[in-house]
């Protein structure tokens, strides 16, 4: 163990924040730390939009399903996959570029996620808290319009960022044996591992809520595969130039 590993293992989502600003130099340092993340072929296919307008914050919170912490956080950042800048740079360098490939979408999305996670770790290292907001994909067209995103740029997720006003427990993770395999994929023990983890999460939810939430990991997954499907995303991405050819 070392301080970095301890920091990573102490991650919690923070949804209540102090009324305290993040100094601009610190924010810029966090973004620079994000830029140091691995990036495919040095493409750096991301842009971060800092939402400062209060009306836009309120609208973003509404679009994301009423997440009030978007309004209350010191900063709300939207991490966008951006293929416009690198594609046009390659064109100016003389390339006959091909747009709309699925691989390009994957590269830009992965680059964005890696960059954001660097920002998250850097933020937590200086005492800040954060919450990722995938809910901005509930209405991606409206979010893109609000942020004036051009073609070949799409909002991947948001991040509420600020000084924590709460101290929630660390949420348990699946046992290592469930996800770490040697040489080949083997899920023969999945039913047992999941059952054990369901019991762990059941105790966690009961203790965290004082007995008001009787659930487990498997039950909490149901909406992801039934209602939280966001079927509009494919058409939205195609409309932004991510044709997935």
How do you describe this structure in short?
The protein has helices spanning 3-9, 24-35, 54-63, 69-72, 84-92, 102-125, 140-147, 176-179, 190-208, 217-221, 232-239, and strands at residues 46-50, 75-82, 129-133, 153-162. The protein is α+β, with helices and mostly antiparallel strands.
Question: Can you describe this structure?
Answer:
By secondary structure, this protein is an alpha+beta fold. It has two domains: 3-169 and 228-239, NADH Oxidase; 171-214. It has helices at 3-9, 24-35, 54-63, 69-72, 84-92, 102-125, 140-147, 176-179, 190-208, 217-221, 232-239; strands at residues 46-50, 75-82, 129-133, 153-162. The chain has a four-stranded antiparallel beta sheet, sandwiched between helices. The chain is globular and about 60 Å long.
List the helices and strands and how they pair.
Layout: H1 3-9, H2 24-35, E1 46-50, H3 54-63, H4 69-72, E2 75-82, H5 84-92, H6 102-125, E3 129-133, H7 140-147, E4 153-162, H8 176-179, H9 190-208, H10 217-221, H11 232-239
Antiparallel strand pairs: 1-2, 2-4, 3-4
Helix pairs in contact: 2-6
Keywords: Flavoprotein, FMN, NADP, Oxidoreductase
GO molecular function: oxidoreductase activity
Pfam family, one: Nitroreductase
List keywords for this structure.
245 residues, NADH Oxidase, Flavin_OxRdtase_Frp, 11 helices, four-stranded antiparallel beta sheet, NADP, alpha+beta, single chain, Nitroreductase-like
């Amino acid at each position: 163990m070392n301080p970095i590993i301890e920091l990573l293992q102490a991650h919690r989502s923070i949804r209540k924040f102090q009324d305290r600003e993040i100094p601009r130099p610190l924010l810029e340092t966090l973004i620079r730390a994000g830029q140091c993340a691995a990036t495919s072929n040095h493409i750096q296919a991301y842009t971060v939009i800092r939402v400062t307008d209060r009306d836009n914050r309120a609208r973003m919170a509404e679009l994301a399903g009423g997440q009030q912490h978007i309004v209350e956080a010191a900063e709300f950042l939207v991490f966008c996959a951006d293929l416009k800048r690198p594609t046009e740079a390659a064109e100016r360098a003389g390339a006959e570029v091909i747009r709309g490939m699925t691989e390009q979408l994957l590269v830009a999305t992965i680059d964005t996620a890696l960059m954001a996670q660097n920002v998250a770790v850097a933020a937590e290292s200086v005492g800040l808290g954060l919450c990722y907001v995938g809910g901005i994909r509930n209405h991606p067209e409206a979010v893109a319009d609000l942020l004036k995103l051009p073609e070949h740029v799409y909002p991947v997720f948001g991040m509420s960022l600020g000084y924590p006003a709460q101290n929630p427990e660390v949420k348990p993770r699946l046992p290592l044996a469930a996800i770490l395999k040697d040489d080949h994929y083997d899920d023969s023990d999945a039913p047992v591992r999941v059952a054990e983890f369901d019991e762990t999460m059941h105790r966690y939810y009961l203790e965290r809520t004082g007995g008001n939430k009787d659930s487990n990991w498997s039950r909490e997954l149901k909406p992801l595969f039934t209602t939280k499907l966001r079927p509009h995303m494919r058409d939205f991405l195609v409309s932004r130039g991510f044709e997935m050819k």
